[in-house]
Structure formats: structure tokens, C-alpha cells
Specification:
By secondary structure, this protein is mainly α. About 25% of the residues have low confidence. It has one domain.
Length: about 180
């Protein structure tokens, strides 16, 4: 599902709601193999998708139509079709904005189970990798992820995983 969303993204509420229900149904199986598959595919999605053109095609088309006449006076039309950025924004912030509609879906994968330290180490490692990818991509509300990571950090028994969780926590708090 995440690989399809990364190549054919859509931010429609219906698709995101259906995707969230699929995730919750898969989590209901309470299978470590399913959990690892969810974490790994969500990590792939966070790292590789979505792209600007696929997130909201209708908005891109209307923006292109609205700026078509404005590009006549601009060299090659590059400035007229570029997405608008607020002062101080970079392309990284634009990438965050593209990803924002999908954050609740990824958080639905990440937020379960409530006691991750009880999962096998391979599953916990996949979950930490997802958290690190999520933080590196940029988040709308890093405090939500930090609230999940903090209790896990206290209970985690694997030193390498604790170090990775600590890095993700620090990145979340830095983004606050």
C-alpha cells in the first residue's frame, strides 16, 4: 500500500481514511512479521514519496492555469510556475508540506503498539528506523512523535536501539 502511495500519491481524505483502516486492520493481526512489513513499507514511503506533482493534481492544474498568462513576461515562465514560498522557506519545507497529508497515516503505523519494548528486537529496530526516517523527512508536530519515543527510551533494553531512539528524540525536540 505504501509503495503504491509513493508512486501514485493522493491526498484525498477518502484514500487516506481507507489506508488508515487497512493499517489498523493489519495491526489487529498482532503479528511481528506484519508489524515489520508495515514499519519497513512506511519507512520506504517516508523516504521516497510523495512527489509534488502527485499530491494534489487538481491544485497543480489550477495553479498552472492561473499562472499561464503571467508567464509571458517572465524569462521562460520559471518564476510564474514555481510553487509559492513564504519568506525564509526552503525546498525542504516545501517537501514537508507535500508530506503533511500523509503524516497521520504514518503515525497510525508508528503509534502502535503502546508498549514497543515488548516486541522482538528486529521489530523494534524496524520501528526505530521508521522514526528516524520520519524525523529526517520533517514533521508537522514533532511533539507527538517525542511523546511516543520518550517512554520507549526509558524501557528499551538494547543499547544500540536506545542510542537511535535518543537521536530521534533529540531531533524531535530540536524541531519544536
Amino acid at each position: 500500500m505504501f509503495k503504491i502511495l509513493s508512486t501514485h500519491p493522493t491526498s484525498s481524505a477518502e484514500v487516506l481514511d481507507l489506508s488508515t483502516r487497512i493499517v489498523k486492520h493489519a495491526q489487529g493481526a498482532r503479528s511481528n512479521a506484519v508489524d515489520v512489513a508495515l514499519y519497513e513499507s512506511a519507512k520506504f514511503f517516508v523516504a521516497n514519496g510523495p512527489t509534488t506533482k502527485g499530491v494534489d493534481v487538481g491544485a497543480d492544474r489550477s495553479r498552472d492555469q492561473n499562472t499561464a498568462g503571467a508567464s509571458d513576461g517572465v524569462d521562460g515562465g520559471a518564476l510564474a510556475t514555481a510553487p509559492p514560498f513564504r519568506t525564509g522557506e526552503t525546498s525542504e519545507v516545501g517537501g514537508r508540506r507535500e508530506f503533511e497529508p500523509f503524516q497521520p497515516l504514518v503515525m497510525a503505523v508508528f503509534a502502535w503498539p503502546k508498549e514497543p519494548w515488548r516486541q522482538p528486537e528486529r521489530t523494534r529496530k524496524s520501528r526505530v528506523d521508521l522514526a528516524l526516517a520520519f524525523v529526517q523527512r520533517g514533521m508537522q508536530a514533532p511533539a507527538t512523535l517525542a511523546a511516543i519515543l520518550d517512554p520507549w527510551l526509558v524501557e528499551e533494553r538494547s543499547r544500540p536501539l536506545r542510542e537511535d531512539i535518543q537521536r530521534a528524540c533529540q531531533a524531535c525536540k530540536r524541531d519544536l
